[in-house]
Amino acid sequence: MEIVLTVSQCVEAINIALDSLGELTVEGEVADFKIIQNKWVTFDVKDNQSVLKCFMTVWSMRTQIEDGMLVKVTGQPNLRAKGFLSFVAKNVQPSGEGSLKRAFELLKKKLEQEGLFALDRKRSLPRFPQHVALITSRDAAAYADFLKVLTARYGGMKISFIHTQVQGADAPAQIIGALQTANTDLTNLDVIILVRGGGSLEDLMAFNDEHVVRAVAGSRTPIIVAIGHERDVCLAELAADVRASTPSNAAELLIKSRQEITLDIDRMRSSLSQAVRDTISSHQTQVIRMTHAIGSRLTATAERARQMIARISSVSIRFRDSIARNRESIENIRRMLVAISPEKTLARGYSITRTASGNIVHTVENISQGEAITTTLAAGTVKSVVEEIMP
Fold it and tell me: How far is CA 290 from CA 90, 281, 283, 294, 305, in A?
């Protein structure tokens, strides 16, 4: 019996068959790369004979690609309802050293423009951290190297170890999860240490993953990242607060050696002693300056007081002399008044004649014939009657 399918049924059957293949990884050269509405990504991967159209979301891209780059695309093929085959990509990674380096430079430039590597956003590490989180693989040599150096330099520190894969397809998600655990689940955490040993550029690509780099930059806790050997530089290191050249160097940067701490203490003691001496010297200078100033003010005040006392003394002398002169003048006036007093005048032979009404007789015109008058002498009075008036 002939089986007849509708077009939709045929497309569905083909997609069921394609789904049975599971996820595929395809390697090819990128062409016609486009980002649509900052949401969707379309590009072709091709070789010398075939072209496969790829589709993915922007947030699924974890690295930067461009036309001409050799990449590995992981995803599933799907026949669209409109009849064309599309490869739905879940992940895309550069393939080959040249493409890896180019993807590295493209992402580095993008993140630099966003300011993720700026020095002014980097935080300093605590001088003596008490609790650190170590993120790496328990099987990695970096784990043992870090602990060996740290133990030799400083004891008593709490170390919370968080295991994660450090390479491979699952490594980025595990690293991000480990950073989230350290930042949210660990209390009183001072520093996060993210390390792994050396390897090829492809081995280290988990630490050039855009999501990992952003997770490092967004860490709430200060973070040291040391990936690979000294010559290796990963974007996660550039985003960290402190970049260490190796895992051992991360331990050295985290804690100084006992000898360095002793030297620091000696330098601080010397600096403190010098600061105390400088402070004492400065205060001594200020005291001497203030003493001189007070002495000068006291001298000036004493001189003004002496001058004031002299002026008061001068005024007192003038006042005393004035009183003496006034007393002499008063005495002279008194003697003069005594000399011209009526009593003295009478004593010299003069007399005073008054009418009966008490008026002094100055001329004969002041009296009349027959009028009674009284004459006052130096000793006694005489009463008489006017008998005759002679002009």
Answer: 80, 14, 10, 6, 22
